[in-house]
Backbone:
């Protein structure tokens, strides 16, 4: 289990992460979504031990990583920027990682490399970007880690390899009761594999809940009135995205949905429609007032 | 460093992985050194004067080059091993490994050091074997020699590697790592510069330079890359001479080694490793791949660069000036260099500038604190005088003792500038005859044999007198006490005198204590002149006069020398000249006898400092100049007739007293025996002046302050030497050297001029009130005299 407690990280005057906490349970895939610069990579680097947090603690299976860095032998970090030696092959990199990860399994390495169709004797620098990602994934899984950190790891993978990777991760997670923390700015990538998703909205986590719980946790109301109405009649409801088109009003509500519906009913609308928000809509709502590239998010 | 069992493997894993990238460097060294050993024949090693443990033919350039190359190779090794520090991709991998930073740092360090040391030791083993095969024996002395050379060869690499590693492990980019490594390597030098320059400029008695020819071997605090390579040998060992390690080597000669460089290089290496490690543990990896964010390093390097600027401009001022406003200028130089560096290597320049402004007062306080420490006695340094019971002797170096330096041709307390009045070179030499030489510490000469001019530095003359007797030592200590009492004397002070004095105590326990002064009050300077009446100076005079015996050992001079009874050698002195006080021409009187020489010596010894330096115009008779060297081998049976009497004098303006062993002595009335001898032999007529006030066109009169704006600022010792030159036009044309160029007022009234002439001397103590008079004759020749 990965446990991040009250972690803060500042770069000079800029606070990248502010008092952030999260938990990734065993046999869980935790998706971390957020726009560029939201702090996803910073958080992953802190968990991997690359960055040292200004305060807070990071534990794996209850062991503090900075007090016991040897615990990181059970953790594998696949960064966004991959590093391979200039003349390294997968085979030589396997030997390299074997020096540092006592659980490294050559058998698994060979199997996975075969599964992805990668030549372990070829120079990795000659691989395509997608192949390099596959190679790193193979190497990472061969260390048989109890925790895996994946930073934008599906970038550059073709759909087939993407599905294969997802399947592998799911199988590995189920088999080894492993904790996987995966970051992406593309919600679609994560929605179908994560059991838990957190939305980072700069410095901190805006939403952190199970995917199942999230579905239906927010609603959009569409109301039709016989005449133009004053927005103040909805006093008592915490709503967002209020829009009105004459006698038609719509907004979203994320808390006390039933109470909100009761108040709305008291305003005597002709029609009341209540729609549960999709993950995309929830994300959009959280990201409003930002300069995030929404098209890319849902592409 | 302790390694937990669970992480031992990753440590060695990183060690071996790192080794792969740098092993070629020690491998190259191993191949080169081994080839070197096996390529030398047995005969090379068996010839003791030529071969000993990598030392061949007295100067092993190859070993020297290899040692030098180890410096960049050490830096390169560090660069390769720690390049993950400025690569984001690599640092992601390295820092996410299950290792502590301690393990990462030391695995890398070990990967750099161990192969190099192993390669060196292995190839050294071959070399030892080669030496043993031809007769060298395994003795303690031999092994110490081997160890010394071994370490001499290794420390450049180790120091370079450790310093570069410490920097590169904590830098954010390649440029930072490289530039900061070079600057960090200069840190010991910068520290030395700061401390020693402030010390020498502001501590009373700690002059920046002693002008001693022989400087004793000193501990190499700085520049350990190069200074460590010092070996001192039995045979070639001279006091104060540090012989490079590659100079001479043989079985018999290896006895004394200067380990200071090796020790200091090792100390600096250890310090670099420790500091690098501490910084690496706290390293903020977010600086990786960025420029200007390694703030700690940047700050240190900015200060180092600032210190160089501080000390560089410090030395450009006159030695011993050491005024507080100069400290402010120096600090301004520091600040400019500091900010320039910060702006170049800063990440957020405006912010860095503001931070620097806040830190600047702290640095200023630091510099000022060091300054105060040095200015006020340096913990007793300035006021320390060794107890008399511990003193073996005292050397005092001052230009006033230059009478033994015959190479400078009459450049002595007894000498007058009368040499070489030749038409063709007079224009170049006129100023030498007067104050110029004293002011700018250099002398121009003309070598007639080679028909070329030469220049010689006045300061480098051996102008040291050694005071040994208890009475002499007490008198020398009195001078030192007076200098201490004077405290800091500046050239702008009313009673300041230029008095370049070095006092060097040689203690009975073999140690030496040196104090160096550049300026004193007039009162103290007069005490310096009083040393004229010491046994040491008398002894020096005897030594000079007795030098025709071709020995410098006055203690072994034959008794007959002192009582004048030794006529057997009948040594004569030729080329003797007499000058009147107007110095307008010399009379060559040919040969003088040994008898006259004894008389002259006895008068010189009897003359008090007061009579010598403070006589009046009325006391002055003229100048006797002669050339000692020409006496050697001069006497033959054929010349015997000449010995019996003086040759007839004749006036000349085309002779040269510029050669070795020339001496000129101002004859004064207190030298009664000399005067009597001159009178008895009809020589006094040659002292009569040819010129009168009627021959003078005009005179100019000024004090030193009027001539230079400050009192005797540049004078080494305030003693005036008269001068004469034949071309006023040439002198005036050379405005840079013409000291009266700013004095426009001329005196033409003959009565007034006569009154001044009645007071004028050609030699003596020049006080701040004394006036210098330039006489321009109607024939456009020119003379300089002094009115005390």
Residues:
């Amino acid at each position: 289990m990965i446990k991040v407690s009250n972690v803060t990280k500042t770069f000079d005057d800029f606070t990248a992460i502010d008092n952030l906490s999260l938990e990734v349970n065993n046999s869980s895939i935790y998706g971390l979504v957020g726009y560029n610069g939201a702090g996803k990579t910073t958080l992953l680097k802190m968990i991997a031990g690359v960055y040292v947090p200004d305060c807070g603690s990071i534990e794996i299976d209850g062991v503090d990583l900075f007090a016991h860095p040897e615990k990181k032998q059970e953790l594998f970090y696949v960064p966004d920027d991959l590093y391979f030696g200039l003349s390294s092959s997968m085979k030589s990199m396997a030997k390299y990682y074997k020096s540092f990860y006592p659980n490294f399994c050559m058998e698994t390495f060979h199997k996975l490399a075969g599964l992805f169709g990668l030549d372990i004797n070829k120079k990795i620098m000659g691989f395509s970007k997608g192949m390099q990602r596959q190679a790193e994934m193979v190497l990472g899984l061969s260390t048989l880690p109890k925790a895996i950190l994946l930073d934008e790891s599906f970038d550059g993978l073709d759909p087939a390899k993407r599905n294969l990777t997802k399947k592998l991760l799911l199988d590995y997670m189920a088999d080894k009761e492993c904790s996987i923390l995966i970051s992406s700015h593309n919600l679609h990538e994560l929605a179908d594999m994560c059991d838990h998703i957190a939305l980072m909205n700069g410095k901190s986590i805006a939403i952190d809940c199970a995917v199942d719980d999230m579905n239906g946790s927010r609603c959009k109301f569409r109301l039709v009135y016989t005449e133009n109405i004053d927005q103040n009649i909805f006093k008592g409801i915490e709503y967002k995205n209020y829009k009105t088109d004459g006698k038609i009003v719509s907004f979203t509500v994320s808390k006390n949905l039933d109470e909100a519906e009761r108040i709305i009913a008291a305003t005597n609308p002709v029609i009341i429609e209540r729609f549960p928000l999709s993950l995309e809509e929830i994300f959009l709502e959280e990201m409003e007032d930002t300069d995030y590239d929404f098209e890319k998010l849902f592409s | 460093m302790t390694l937990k069992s669970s992480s031992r493997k990753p440590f060695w894993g990183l060690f071996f992985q790192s080794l792969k990238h740098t092993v070629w460097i020690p491998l190259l060294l191993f191949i080169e050194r081994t080839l070197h050993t096996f390529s030398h024949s047995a005969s090379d090693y068996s010839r003791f004067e030529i071969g000993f443990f990598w030392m061949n033919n007295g100067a092993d350039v190859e070993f020297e080059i290899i040692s030098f190359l180890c410096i960049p190779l050490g830096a390169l090794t560090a660069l390769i091993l720690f390049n993950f520090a400025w690569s984001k991709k690599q640092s992601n991998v390295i820092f996410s490994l299950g290792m502590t930073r301690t393990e990462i740092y030391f695995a890398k360090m070990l990967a750099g050091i161990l192969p190099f040391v192993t390669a060196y030791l292995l190839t050294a083993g071959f070399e030892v074997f080669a030496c043993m095969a031809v007769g060298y024996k395994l003795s303690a002395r031999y092994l110490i020699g081997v160890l010394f050379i071994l370490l001499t060869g290794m420390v450049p690499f180790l120091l370079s590697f450790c310093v570069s590693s410490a920097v590169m492990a904590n830098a954010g980019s390649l440029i930072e790592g490289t530039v900061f490594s070079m600057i960090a390597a200069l840190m010991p030098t910068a520290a030395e510069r700061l401390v020693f320059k402030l010390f020498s400029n502001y501590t009373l008695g700690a002059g920046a330079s002693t002008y001693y020819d022989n400087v004793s071997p000193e501990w190499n605090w700085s520049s350990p890359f190069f200074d460590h390579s010092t070996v001192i040998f039995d045979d070639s060992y001279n006091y104060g001479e540090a012989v490079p390690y590659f100079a001479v080597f043989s079985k018999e000669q290896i006895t004394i080694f200067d380990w200071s460089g090796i020790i200091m290089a090792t100390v600096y290496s250890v310090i670099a490793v420790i500091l690098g490690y501490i910084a690496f543990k706290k390293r903020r990896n977010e600086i990786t791949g960025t420029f200007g964010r390694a703030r700690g390093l940047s700050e240190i390097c900015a200060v180092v660069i600032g210190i160089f600027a501080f000390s560089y401009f410090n030395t450009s001022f006159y030695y011993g000036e050491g005024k507080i406003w100069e400290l402010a200028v120096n600090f301004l130089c520091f600040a400019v260099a500091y900010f320039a560096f910060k702006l170049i290597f800063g990440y957020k320049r405006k912010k860095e500038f503001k931070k620097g402004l806040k830190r600047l007062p702290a640095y200023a306080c630091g510099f000022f604190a060091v300054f105060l420490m040095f200015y006020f006695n340096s913990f007793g340094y300035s006021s320390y005088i060794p107890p008399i019971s511990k003193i073996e002797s005292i050397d005092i170096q001052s230009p006033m003792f230059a009478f033994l330096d015959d190479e400078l041709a009459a450049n002595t307390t007894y000498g007058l500038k009368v040499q070489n009045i030749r038409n063709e070179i007079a224009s170049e030499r006129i100023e030498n005859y007067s104050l110029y030489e004293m002011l700018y510490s250099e002398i121009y000469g003309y070598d007639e044999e080679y028909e070329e001019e030469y220049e010689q530095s006045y300061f480098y003359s051996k102008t040291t007198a050694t005071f040994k007797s208890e009475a002499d030592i007490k008198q020398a200590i009195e001078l030192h006490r007076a200098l201490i009492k004077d405290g800091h004397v500046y050239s702008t002070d009313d009673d300041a005198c230029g008095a370049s004095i070095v006092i060097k105590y040689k203690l009975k326990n073999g140690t030496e204590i040196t104090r160096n002064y550049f300026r004193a009050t007039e009162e103290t300077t007069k005490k310096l002149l009083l040393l004229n009446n010491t046994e040491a100076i008398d002894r020096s005079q005897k030594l000079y006069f007795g030098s025709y015996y071709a020995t410098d050992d006055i203690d072994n001079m034959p008794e007959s020398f002192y009582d004048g009874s030794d006529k057997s050698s009948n040594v004569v002195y030729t080329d003797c000249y007499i000058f009147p006080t107007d110095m307008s021409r010399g009379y060559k009187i040919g040969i003088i006898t040994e008898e006259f020489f004894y008389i002259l010596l006895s008068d010189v010894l009897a003359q008090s400092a007061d009579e010598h330096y403070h006589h009046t115009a009325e006391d002055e008779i003229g100048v006797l100049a002669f050339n000692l060297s020409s006496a050697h081998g001069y006497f033959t049976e054929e010349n015997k007739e000449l010995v019996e009497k003086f040759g007839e004098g004749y006036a000349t303006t085309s002779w040269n007293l510029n050669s070795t062993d020339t001496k000129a002595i101002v004859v004064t009335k207190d030298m009664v025996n000399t005067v009597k001898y001159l009178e008895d032999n009809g020589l006094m007529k040659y002292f009569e002046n040819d010129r009168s006030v009627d021959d003078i066109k005009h005179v100019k009169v000024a004090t030193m302050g009027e001539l230079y704006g400050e009192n005797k600022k540049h004078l080494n010792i305030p003693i005036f030497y008269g001068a004469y030159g034949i071309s006023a036009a040439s002198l005036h044309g050379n405005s840079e050297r013409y000291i009266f160029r700013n004095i426009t007022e001329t005196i033409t009234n003959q009565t007034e001029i006569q009154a001044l002439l009645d007071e004028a001397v050609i030699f003596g103590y020049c006080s701040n009130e004394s006036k210098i008079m330039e006489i321009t004759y109607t024939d456009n020749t020119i003379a300089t005299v002094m009115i005390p």
User: Anything to note?
Assistant: Chain B touches chain A at residues 4, 6-7, 9-10, 12-14, 16-17, 87-93, 95-100, 284-286, 348 (CB under 8 Å). Chain B has a mean pLDDT of 72. Residues 5-208+221-368 of chain B form one domain. The radius of gyration of chain B is 34 Å.
